[in-house]
Amino acid sequence: MLIRVKVSKAFFNKVQSNEWIDGLFQGNQGCWVYVELGEEYEYISSPKDDPKTEYRIFRGCDVFYADSLENLENEKYLGSAENQTVIIYC
C-alpha cells in the first residue's frame, strides 16, 4: 500500500532514512500519522503530481494512525501498519 503524508517544509527538508516524521495522512485534517521511516529511494514523478509540490519516497516504513495531533503525541493510536511505502510531500 502506498501512503501519502503531508508534512511541514522543515520536516521535509531535514528528515533522512531511518528517522521519523509526523504529518497528515493523505493531507486529511482528521487523521494524523507518526511514521518510522525506512530507506529513501529516488522519487520518480507522476503526471498527476502537482508541479508546485515536492515529494520524497521511503520504503519499509511503520505507520501509526491517530485521530488528533494530541492523541498522536500521547501515543494513543487507532491502528498501525508495518513495512509500508510512504511518500512525504509539502
Can you walk me through this structure?
The mean pLDDT is 94. Helices cover 12% and strands 47% of the residues. Strands 1-2-3-5-6 form a five-stranded mixed barrel. The chain has two helices and six strands; from the N terminus they run βαββββαβ. It has helices at residues 9-14, 69-73, and strands spanning 2-6, 20-25, 32-36, 39-41, 55-66, 79-89.
Notable characteristics:
90 residues, mainly beta, five-stranded mixed beta barrel, 2 helices, globular
Summarize the structure.
With about 90 residues, the protein is mainly beta.
Helices, strands, pairings?
Layout: E1 2-6, H1 9-14, E2 20-25, E3 32-36, E4 39-41, E5 55-66, H2 69-73, E6 79-89
Parallel strand pairs: 1-6
Antiparallel strand pairs: 1-2, 2-3, 3-5, 4-5, 5-6
Coarse shape = globular
> What is the H-and-E element order?
EHEEEEHE
Structural class, from helix and strand content?
mainly beta
| Largest sheet report | 5 strands, mixed, barrel
Total strands: 6
The largest sheet has its strands arranged as: 1-2-3-5-6
Helix content: 10-25%
User: What is the tally of helical segments?
Assistant: 2
Rg (CA only): 12 Å
Number of domains: 1
The amount of beta strand, in percent, is over 45%
N- and C-termini, Cα separation: 20 Å
Low-confidence stretches: none
What value does the average pLDDT take?
Answer: 94
